[in-house]
Amino acid sequence: MAAPPEKTINDLTGKWVMNKTKSKDFDPILALQGIGWMTRTIIGKATVTVNIKQYTDDAGKHIDVDQVLTGGITSTPEKRILDWNERPHKDATFGDLVGRSKLTDSKNLEPGFGGEDVEFLSAGWDADEQLHSWVENKKAGWTATQVWGFQTVDGERRYVRKVVVRKGNELRQGFLVYDYAGPL
Question: Which residues of 160-171 are buried (b: 16+ CB within 10 A; e: fewer)?
């Protein structure tokens, strides 16, 4: 289902289901991040639902994300504060990470990204503001940059996450398209 007009990057609260037919195959990105074949196969076959709660408190703007796979299998909750400060995060699938997030215009990404990254990550957004997220796994040697927002996909407004993962000289780009599945 297309994203309702009231859903914006400032109000993602709700249930979102990954649309695999509209998304790019994510297996090569997960492989570059060192995710094993069995885990990638399970993720590839499962229905992925992302439950998002977005709110503001004294610490700032937050986005809390819980992913649920078919059968109720959950991943490590992601709790982001949108202030671009680095924070550690221990993830059951991706390991020990450090990451940061903020709301920004994707055309103003932080320095350090190659031209192809910026071109891919900034193209096609329906609004001026997106969520920019960066994460690093120092032990595995990769970084991932995501830009979240809304794009028109096959004539419908959809929640989209674009991803660029780098490990050494290797680069993988992908995007995930989500169907709106209703309120939490």
Answer: bbbbbbbbeeee
- The candidate with the shortest Cα–Cα distance to 101, out of 140, 126, 65, 76, is 65
Query: Which comes out higher in pLDDT, residue 35 or 109?
Result: 35
Helix or strand or coil: residue 163? strand
**Superfamily for the 14-182 domain:** Calycin beta-barrel core domain (2.40.128.20)
pLDDT at 73: 81
Quote the DSSP letter at residue 127.
S
Average pLDDT on 24-48 reads 93
Boundaries of every domain in the chain: 14-182
Angle at 14 between CA 145 and CA 31, to 5 degrees: 35
Q: What is the pLDDT of residues 40-94, one digit of tens each?
A: 998 889 999 999 999 999 999 999 999 999 888 888 899 999 999 999 999 989 9
| Strand runs labelled E in the chain | 14-18, 48-57, 60-69, 73-74, 78-81, 87-91, 95-104, 130-137, 142-153, 156-167, 170-182
Q: Averaged over 155-176, what is the pLDDT?
A: 95
Tokens coding 40: 């990638």
The predicted pLDDT at position 75 comes to 85
Judge contact between 104 and 129, C-beta under 8 A: yes
